[in-house]
Amino acid sequence: MNEALTRRYDFVAFFDVQDGNPNGDPDAGNLPRVDPETGHGLVTDVSLKRKIRNYVSLRMEEQPPYSIFVREKSILNQTIEQAYISLEIDLNEKPIDPEDGKKRNKAGQGQGKEIDRARQFMCQNFYDIRTFGAVLSTGPNAGQVRGPVQLTFARSIDPVVSLEHSITRMAVATEAEAEKQGGDNRTMGRKFTIPYGLYRVHGFVSAPLASQTGFSETDLELLWESLLNMFEHDRSASRGLMGTRKLIIFEHSSKMGNISVQPLFDAVTAELKDQSKPARGYSDYNISINREMIPSSVNVIER
Length: 303
Description:
The protein is an alpha+beta fold. The chain has a domain at 9-55 and 146-302. Helices cover 26% and strands 29% of the residues. The protein contains eight helices and 14 strands. The strands form four sheets. Strands 1, 4, 7, 8, 9, 10, 11 and 14 form an eight-stranded antiparallel sheet that branches. It has a two-stranded antiparallel sheet with strand order 2-3. It is flat and about 70 Å long.
C-alpha cells in the first residue's frame, strides 16, 4: 500500500561502535571524525545515508520503484538520460520557445513540462531521490528535488579516544619489495579505532515535502527498517562491531506538526551510569524519555 503521509515525524536513533572506526576522515589520514573542541565522535549524515541506500538496494534487489540513484561508481547523468529515453523525449530536438515559437534552447536540456515529467519519473523509480532529494540538472535536466527525509550528523554521547594500531601483512605486493626485504616479505600498516562510542543522530520527515516526491507510508516503513538494520550488511574489519541500539519516533497528529522539534529531542537523554569509568558497552548507558515534556498530540514509538 502506498498511502501518502498525513503526519509529520521526527526521530532519534542511537547506534554504537566497539573497537572500530565508524567514519574515517580522509583529510586526517582516515582517523575517526572528532569534534576538536570537545572530543566527541562524529559520523556524517552522508555516511548514514549511504548505509540506508545500501540496505534498501540489498533488501529490494534494485528493482523499481526502489532503485538507488546514487550508487557506487555510477554515472548520474547517464541515469537521468535514461529517464528521457523511457519517456520517449528526444534529447536531440531543440524545444520550441513559447514566447515566439522559435527553437532557442540548447538541445537535450528539457523545458517546462518535459522537466516535470522527467523529475516525476525519477521520483517514482528511485527510492533515495523521493526520500533524500537530489540535484537532477547536471546533464539532461530533470530539475531539483527537495527530499522529505533529512538527517543530522551523529555525535557521540561522551568524548571518544582514537587509538592507532600497527598491523602487519605477511606478504608484499611486488618482487621489488621482496628483494629490498631479503625475502622477509612483510608490509606494515596502521589501523585506527575507538574502544567504544554510543552515537546519537536526529532525523526529520516532512509530510508536505513527501507529497511532492511521492514518499509514502510504505517508504516510511522501509526507512524505519533501514535505520534499524543499516549496519547488519555493512560489516568490515575497519568498522569493528557496529549496530543500531534504539530508535525513538515522534509521530505528530497533523501534517505540519504539533510542536517544534527541540522539546521532543530534549525529552530524550542518554547518560553514563558510572561517571568514574569510561564506557565500554551499551549497558553502561541509561536512555530515558521524559514523557511529561511531550504533548498528548504526539505519539512516541520505540523500536
